[in-house]
């Protein structure tokens, strides 16, 4: 009986850990020929990588088992299987001359214009533009945009051409909330940005690393060197199904009821084993 309880406890805990594992994986897309990679945020080691079409790679968004990518030359958003890299088609944003970064709010996408303006587009999963806003602190060809906790954060300019960059916070109508919430000056350049549910990760493109910034006050926390890449990392993403603010279905950040039940049985088993040993 003790062995059965111990086995059940180990199995249920494994399910619990599996439910949150995706939250620790950082996805990237490089500037140039698109190539998606993923990294362990604890070690910085590369997990996998696959080619994602052609043209000028820019944005990346991971939603569960699907990776979405953009490029700077047109409005096409590609879809790929997260584990195999197999193409799943995609959709075109009508009228978009080029897209840099892309984000997701749990229902629709936010994309940043890469055709010379400081606009951002709210786009349905079929490519229909639902809303267009202007980001006052951004310049033409800005290349960092992320949705988080009902707000947007965007950088000032294309960080691939200069040193530090500034990231301001807006509401989803484009109203400025906090100017220069993050300033990467002194900590490399700044292109794409991702939110892990707590903190922000920003691509330091030429140093092939991601700098880490507090989601509370925008302060610098450190850096994650991306081991095993020869690419210029442009955009970043965490799994939006592993984030509380954007998960709608199959939430990887919260165990499903069945997993919770098994976890409870497993913990009960551990308690029973412990009591048996002390009797």
Short description:
With 279 residues, this protein is mainly beta. The chain has helices at residues 2-20, 257-278; strands at 25-30, 35-40, 46-51, 57-63, 66-71, 76-81, 87-92, 99-104, 109-113, 119-123, 129-134, 145-148, 151-155, 166-170, 176-183, 193-195, 199-204, 209-214, 220-225, 233-237.
Output the keywords:
single chain; 279 residues; mainly beta; Neuraminidase; four-stranded antiparallel beta sheet; 2 helices; 15% helix; globular; disordered N terminus; disordered C terminus
Low-confidence stretches: 1-20, 253-279
Helix content: 10-25%
- Name of the CATH superfamily: TolB, C-terminal domain
Q: Spell out the helices and strands N to C.
A: HEEEEEEEEEEEEEEEEEEEEH
Largest sheet: 4 strands, antiparallel
CATH class: Mainly Beta
Number of domains: 1
Note the quaternary state here: single chain
CATH architecture assignment: 6 Propeller
Radius of gyration: 20 Å
Per DSSP E runs of 2 or more residues, the count of β-strands stands at 20
CATH T-level topology: Neuraminidase
Task: Provide mean pLDDT, rounded.
Answer: 84
Q: In whole angstroms, how far apart are the ends?
A: 15 Å
Helix- and strand-based class? mainly beta
H/I helix tally: 2
